[in-house]
Structures are given as structure tokens and as C-alpha cells.
Write a structure and sequence with these properties.
Length: 315
């Protein structure tokens, strides 16, 4: 932790932390971007199917994972107060929350997908791709949410470059697996747009594994012993995370669903129109979300909590 008194120093500290976060957000959205882009190289129907699927996936994932972002300020406050054991306990309770959210989304999506997609009057091929793309993505829910918890923990310690590097690995890995599963190269099955969902799910498992290894082996994370002596679920801790995280999750869901609702409304048009619209919206989504993230972290970095430090640095 660093004490700062001058405005210029505050902005410098903020930029050091926020810039990697912005890059991380871009990297996360690039996965969906390349899913759509590379599916479009396969066929127009696959492009439209993946577009519809990603429009359903993104607001659900970002909204619910936004609940877990409350771990960042909670852990940062405990670390600033030299209460590392409580910080570690919060992260461990976050793991339980991640598992619960993964189960809820997996169950909810698998039960609601067919009626939701049938209500869009999609072409049969577009419906098939969208449905199986989302089912494939669901198998990456658990590692994705666990990674979100670890990312919040890493960011809370001010090590945003670490989470940036982990997430940056995801884009080239995802591109490689897209190439293999969409087009069926090197003996892999040719799945078309559905292959991009398989590729993303595999990528989520890999970056989750990388985050686990880093937090187990590297300083300053290793001292928190996140993966030893997991406690029982604590309703009080869970409520604390939910109380702070639910408004964050709802706000992110509202922001990200703006683009998704428009795409779903376009589903009544032709496959070509859906695909063209999604390509344009991908660029708009990245710009909008990163502007939102920058503003949010600026407010958090300049804010104060009752006990002093609200997020990363004492201001």
C-alpha cells in the first residue's frame, strides 16, 4: 500500500492500476469478438448463430460475475488493515459463491434456452448453432467464475498486471482452438460456430488453471494460502459479498444488455442482417464497456471507506 497526497501522484497511481484492467477487459471481450469473426469465415448461418448466442451469454455472465467483483474492495480493505486472514477467508467464501453461480446459470440456461431461442423465429441452422454454442459455453462456467474470484483477489492486491497477463493469454489460446474446432484442422472435429463455444470453454479452464498456479506459487499471493483448509460456507460472509456485489452486478447487466437486446430484436430479420449487425456492435461494445470500467474504477480509487482504504491505495 502507498500513501499519496498530491493529485498528480493519485492520477499516476490510478493509471498504473486501471490501464491493465482496461486491457484485461478488452482481452475478455476479444474472445467473443473472435468467436463471431472466425465463425463468419465458416458460414453466414454460423456467424448469426454465434452472434445470437454471445448476445445471450455476455449480459448473463457479466451481470452475475459482477456480483463477485465486490471481493476486490472487501479484500483490499482487509489487506490495508493488516487483516490477511480475513482477506483470505473472503476469497475462500467467494469460491463457494462462484460454484453456486455456475450451478444457477447452468441450470437456468439449459432449461430456458429452447423456449427463448424458439421465440426468436430463427432459421433452423441459426437456432442449432446458437443453442449448441451456449451449451458448450456452459461447460466453462465453473472455471470462469473461479477465475473471476481469483482475478478480484489479484486486483485487490494492486497486482492488476498479473491478471492482465493471464487474460491476455486467453485470446491467442482461444484463436488457436477456434481454428481447430471451427474448421476441423489437425484431426479435430469440424463443428462450425459451435466449435467456438467449445474453444472458449477450454480456454476458460486453462486461464483458471494458470490463475490457480500463480496464486499458489507466487509472491505476494502465496502467503494467503487460498487453497488450504477451506472453511465451511459462511452465510454472513456470503451476505456481505452479495450486499455489495448485487448492485454492481445489476448495473453491469443493465449496461451490457443494451447491446444484447438490440441484437435479439434483430433476430426477426435475415441471417445476413443479424451477422452484419453483430460485427458492428462488437466494436461498439468494447468501446462502451471499457469507458464504463474506467469511470467505475476512477470513482472507486478516489473514494474512501469508513475504515480508510476503499480499494487499492490509501488516498
Amino acid at each position: 500500500m502507498h500513501e499519496t497526497t498530491k493529485v498528480g501522484t493519485k492520477w499516476k497511481k490510478m493509471s498504473t492500476i486501471v490501464l491493465p484492467i482496461l486491457i484485461t477487459q478488452v482481452a475478455l471481450y476479444l474472445m467473443s469478438f473472435f468467436d463471431v469473426l472466425m465463425s463468419g469465415k465458416y458460414s453466414t448461418q454460423d456467424l448469426a448463430g454465434v452472434s445470437i448466442g454471445s448476445s445471450i451469454w455476455l449480459p448473463v455472465y457479466t451481470g452475475l460475475s459482477g456480483i463477485l467483483t465486490s471481493i476486490t474492495p472487501i479484500v483490499a480493505q482487509f489487506v490495508g488493515a493488516k487483516r490477511e486472514k480475513e482477506a483470505s477467508a473472503t476469497v475462500k467464501q467467494g469460491f463457494y459463491g462462484a460454484i453456486l453461480l455456475a450451478i444457477i446459470i447452468f441450470t437456468g440456461l439449459t432449461l430456458s434456452l429452447k423456449p427463448l431461442l424458439k421465440g426468436m423465429s430463427l432459421e433452423p441452422d441459426v437456432y442449432r448453432v446458437a443453442y449448441h454454442y451456449l451449451i458448450a459455453m456452459c461447460f466453462g462456467l465453473l472455471p470462469l467464475f473461479i477465475y473471476s474470484v481469483l482475478r478480484c483477489f489479484i486486483d485487490a492486491l494492486g497486482q492488476t498486471r498479473v491478471s492482465m497477463l493471464i487474460t491476455l493469454m486467453a485470446t491467442p489460446i482461444n484463436i488457436v482452438f477456434n481454428y481447430l474446432f471451427i474448421f476441423g484442422h489437425l484431426g479435430f472435429p469440424e463443428l462450425g460456430g459451435v466449435g467456438s463455444g467449445v474453444a472458449s470453454a477450454i480456454t476458460y479452464w486453462l486461464i483458471c488453471g494458470a490463475a490457480i498456479i500463480i496464486t499458489m506459487k507466487k509472491t505476494p499471493f502465496v502467503g494467503f494460502s487460498l487453497f488450504s483448509k477451506l472453511p465451511r460456507p459462511n452465510p454472513t460472509k456470503a451476505f456481505e459479498i452479495l450486499k455489495l456485489g448485487l448492485p454492481i452486478g445489476l448495473a453491469i447487466f443493465a449496461e451490457s444488455s443494451i447491446f444484447s437486446v438490440v441484437t435479439m430484436m434483430m433476430s426477426k430479420y435475415s441471417t445476413e442482417v443479424i451477422g452484419a449487425h453483430q460485427i458492428a456492435m462488437n466494436f461498439a461494445r468494447v468501446c462502451f464497456i471499457n469507458a464504463f470500467v474506467f469511470y467505475s474504477y476512477r470513482i472507486m480509487l478516489l473514494g474512501r471507506h469508513n475504515d480508510g482504504l476503499f480499494l487499492f491505495y490509501s488516498l
